[in-house]
Amino acid sequence: MGRAICAKFVANGYFVVAGDANAEALQDTTTALNKIGENALARPGDLRSKAYCEDLIDTAINLTGRLDALVNNSGIITRGTILETSDEDWERTFDINLTAIFYTCRRAVRFMKENGGGSIVNISSTWGVYPGPSHAAYCASKAAVATFFKMSWARPCGRRHQGQCCLPRGDRYSHASVRLCTSRFRSRHGGGRTQ
Ligand SMILES: NC(=O)c1ccc[n+]([C@@H]2O[C@H](COP(=O)([O-])OP(=O)(O)OC[C@H]3O[C@@H](n4cnc5c(N)ncnc54)[C@H](O)[C@@H]3O)[C@@H](O)[C@H]2O)c1
User: Fold this and answer.
1) Strands 179-183 and 161-166: what pairing?
2) Is 138 part of the annotated catalytic residue set?
3) Which H/E stretch holds residue 136?
4) pTM given for the model
5) Which contacts (CB < 8 Å, 24+ apart) does range 125-128 have?
6) For residues 177 and 2, what is the distance between their CA atoms, to the nearest angstrom?
7) Contact criterion met (CB below 8 Å) for 137 and 93
8) Ranges under pLDDT 50 in the chain
9) Measured in whole angstroms, how far is the alpha carbon of residue 180 from the centre of its chain?
């Protein structure tokens, strides 16, 4: 999904700073996007690091002076009932699926609030709303993403900020996912905000 999201942003004139733990796949993604110009930067890392989460936002801002959109797409699907879920499973799932979103959103909202607005998309899951069987940590983390979105939006951001929480259907997306934040160069052609 992340690869497709990056391509869509680039097609709409955005510069993309893309992150993922899989450095090789990430480089493939940005290399393909850069065949027709300077469109994307690969910034590999582990979302369990707060410093890495914040660096993704800072890199986009430092490179372009803007932050128009943030898409929190990366996530892991942890299988197991409550009895099959270890402490490590639980912590890893929440670190990647939820806490990383908190870190990137907090950093991004701070900048967007002071710089005229922006858009954030956090990818949840239908299983965060209607939990499926035997995925205790995954369903709970995705439910938390949906709630985090609702409670974190209206007050700190105001009207010029837009947020969405997406519940993708599995069969509609490919399996290349990247967490990304995007920034659009001022010199590039304009266009509406991406949500
Ligand atoms: N595909 C589906 O059926 C489906 C359904 C509902 C929700 N979703 C959600 O949509 C999003 C994308 O799904 P997908 O199927 O494209 O996923 P995917 O498994 O293909 O890709 C996930 C990406 O996250 C990266 N990642 C994992 N741990 C990381 C870490 N610690 N640091 C940095 N990167 C890390 C992986 O390297 C991978 O590229 C996820 O949040 C997922 O939960 C997917």
Assistant:
1) unpaired
2) yes
3) helix 136-157
4) 0.88
5) 125/75, 125/167, 125/168, 126/167, 126/168, 126/169, 128/167
6) 3
7) yes
8) 170-182, 184-195
9) 5
Measured by CA distance, the residue closest to atom 35 of ligand 1 is 21
Place of tokens 């699926």: 97
Residue nearest to atom 40 of ligand 1 (CA): 75
CATH of 2-183, one of 3.30.70.20, 3.40.50.720, 3.40.1280.10, 3.30.565.10: 3.40.50.720
In sequence order, the 6+-apart residues with CB closer than 8 A to the CB of 174 are: 1, 3, 4
Residues with CB under 6 A from ligand 1: 1, 20-22, 46-48, 73-77, 96, 123, 125, 168, 170, 173, 175-177, 179
- Positive or negative CA dihedral for 101, 119, 140, 147? positive
* Domain definitions of the chain by residue range: 2-183
pLDDT value, residue 31: 98
Q: What's the pLDDT at 124?
A: 94
